[in-house]
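Thread: quick sanity check before group meeting

JM: Hey all, I'm pulling together slides for Thursday and realized we never actually wrote out the predicted structure for the chain we discussed last week. Dropping the sequence here so it's in one place. If anyone has concerns about the input, flag it before I start.
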Amino acid sequence: MMPLNGKTALITGSTDGVGRVVAMRLGEMGARVLIHGRDQHRGERVVAAIEAAGGTAEFLAADLASLAEARRLADTVGKTSTRLDILINNAGIGTAGTSRLTSNDGHELRFAVNYLAGFLLTTLLLPFIRRSTPARIVNVASAGQQAIDFDDVMLTRGFSGSRAYCQSKLAQIMFTIDLGQELADTDVLVNAVHPATYMDTAMVRRAGVRPMSTVEEGAEAILQLAVSPAVAGCTGRYFNGLNDARANAQAYDDAARQKLRALSLRLTGLAD
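JM (edit): ok, ran it. Output follows.
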């Protein structure tokens, strides 16, 4: 693994589950770790655990169901850090639930939290990340993917939690491919990963699914893309666990990715 002393890492959704394990490991490796979540108490417990192990950490609260909160988080990172070497977009909502819910901004909730917030956060932090090269961005996606219906992205018809989740995860991968192309001539690597199948997390248990993998297994896959020299030079790719893999066919459709990018820029206000 790369030496991390003097480097800073931000992991969204890192007060629990695989995000917490990744944060702890990065702290053990010497990185200054920015913990993100909604719950102050849980965040402070992760910070305390990292510090007890000899690391350095700070908790940043934000509810990514709000684009304003995502903007505030990006602003806070910029004000409190001199660099950002690793960004891991891990926060998300799973498949549980049959009711269609919306974000603070009126967007379908899983699309908003799992994809749009990370799109906005990454875009706002990108100038900062590019000044911290070599740097890496990891989007924690899923093997569960479903093509986006651009006539009904917000799933006002035929909603299901599974469909919403799978669509949002494919959107992450499509963004990863585009960003990898944009950053091809830089020393910033960006990749997406399905960490492991049905990890033992609260998200999986809420969906009523019996866990099949450990969070430690998922953490290894995320950490490979975040810090391992084994993937140096690999960018704009989708990994299934530790292996380079093939995503849903729509991810490689240039026209579909252009539609998604235009929509994302408009919904986040970045097109103004």
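AS: nice. The radius of gyration is 17 Å. Strands lie at 8-11, 32-37, 56-61, 86-89, 135-140, 188-194, 237-240, 243-245.
JM: adding both to the slides.
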